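G., the chain you wanted modeled:
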Amino acid sequence: MGKKDSIKRILVLQLVTFEFILDVLGYACVWFFIYKKMIQLQFWQKGDMLVIGIYAITLSSLLMVYGGGKVGYLRSFEIFLSHAFSLIASNLVAYAVICLMNAHAIDPKYILIMTLVQILFALGWSYLANYIYRSVFAPRQLLLIAGERPVDEIIEKFKTRKDRFEIVKIMNISEGEEKIMEEIPNRYQGVVVWDIPQHLRNNIL
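Predicted structure as tokens:
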């Protein structure tokens, strides 16, 4: 793994950890200041840490399963959906645990408010995190030159690595070799050739 890839991983880890810690702190505040006072059981320090630990483990597990840490790889809205689902599921589990400790259902109003705040924060964080990542590690802008074969297949392949490559323009060989050669030096960091004659490919490369 190269130095650049290591830096990418560190940046993503920092961004995801920041959002994760804020979510756990939000739950800890709701637990300490509201639900702990509402239930009948007495909790010592280790008991409090266990309640918060269960929430942290549940949330982190769901985020890993549903791709919440794939900053730079997924679209911002996809990252948001992953976080939103993970938060809703984790908060449902947390509420169920609190109800079990209380021996009956407890007012869900506060955890619902917390969930709404967390989801709104996750929405803003998803777009900001992707913006930061792509500002630091901008994908290489590519020109795709294609022949008669449909380009859907090659475009889908490049979409799997949005963090590294971005096809910004598609040209067909029917536009003429001269026009294509004039376009190449403009602003591209690479050229992708797709189903074009050998002589034209050699001229381009």
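The radius of gyration is 25 Å.

Shout if anything looks off.
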